[in-house]
Amino acid sequence: MGQFRLLLSTAVLCVMTACSGSSHFSAGIDSNNSAAGSQNAGITLVSKNTEPAAANTETHTIAALPANKLIALTFDDGPRPYVLFGSKEAAHPAPGLADVLDKNGIKATFFVVGWRLTPKTWGEPRHEENIGVTCLDAAQQLIRRGHELEDHTYSHLELRSQERKNGEPWVRRDVDRGAEAIKAVTGAQPRYVRPPDWIITSEARHDLEHQGYRVLTISPENPVALRDVNSLDYLCAGKAVGCPKPSLADAVLKQVEQREKKGTFTHILAFHELSTTAAIMPQLITELKARGYRFVTLTEYMKLVGAKPGETVVKQQAAATSGPVLPR
Ligand SMILES: [Zn+2]
Q1: pLDDT for the residue numbered 88
Q2: Quick one: average pLDDT of 151-167?
Q3: Tally of domains in the chain
Q4: Fewer CB within a 10 Å sphere, N or C end of the chain?
């Protein structure tokens, strides 16, 4: 029955599109085929279950795609007011990242650095433009606009070498301090941690997960849908050495397309708060929307895709039986 429906839908789509080979269609159909039996909740044919949102002029395009295509946009290293809100200087023009997201109705997730959330902090004075807004004010703005703040540690030091130097408790303390700084702004305990450069020992990761944190990773040990997509946007900042060609937006879209071909239609995209990243966001968002993607915060993403804080992603079964322990 499922197969019959698939053939039927494909045939219908071929009629509607004349099997034009447009990237939207071919990606959707190929992926549906290859993903048959996948556990990804988004992999369903939607000829009968097209959501009301799809009932517009693009119905034929959206109907070809999995019903639940999700993107969690995430940005590390802030809050950086000049990136979020822009400035009069040509180097950091307005609109900033926060305005771009607002304009597109997108709620994103910001992995912020704890030290920035201390009073009277405007960023790194040597490298970052002071636009008269503190990082703390910027964080409060982000919350007011419906974004999510998560933990990128307090110090932003590389955790593995710090663990070697200062022992594992130092790592947990640094993550906890980051969480406390965020909680002081949001009133809520952050649940997700992205270690700087994703570098952390497995012992420290397990320890944090035991404390109720969920540690984001690019490790191939994890299911693809729960693995960060490294945008490589940091290569496009400053002297832009190694910035993906032909453009950052195209390179990210290519990664998304490659994941789609393997049957994955949900993606956590990892970016940084950089002016160069803010500049490509309008184009990237437009392209992803055209592919049928919906944008959610990381918490929503995890709810929909399946991982809960405190679970060890690699061994979800085992962790689920013991239950998460939340930090105090
Ligand atoms: Zn970072």
Answers
A1: 72
A2: 98
A3: 2
A4: N
157 with 199, same domain: the answer is yes
Given a cut of 50, whether residue 105 has pLDDT beyond it is yes
The per-residue DSSP string of 169-211 comes to HHHHHHHHHHHHHHHHHHSS---EE--GGG---HHHHHHHHHT
29: Cβ–Cβ under 8 A, 6 or more apart, which residues? 10, 13, 64
Q: Which of 17-26, 101-110, 176-185, 277-286 has the lowest mean pLDDT?
A: 17-26
What's the CA-to-centroid distance between 323 and ligand 1, angstroms? 29
Per-residue pLDDT, 67:
59
- Whether 327 is covered by a domain: the verdict is no
Task: Give the confidence band of 225 by pLDDT, cuts at 50, 70, 90.
Answer: very high
Angle (nearest 5°) at CA 84 between 150 and 145: 65
- 196 CA from centroid of ligand 1 (Å): 4
pTM, whole model, 2 decimals? 0.75
Which amino acid type is present at position 199?
I
76 C-alpha vs ligand 1 centroid, how far in Å?
5
Ligand 1 centroid, distance to 51 Cα (angstroms): 37
For ligand 1, the distance from its centroid to the CA atom of residue 78, given in whole angstroms, is 8
For residue 33, report the distance from its CA to the centre of ligand 1, in Å. 38
90 lies in a domain? Answer: yes
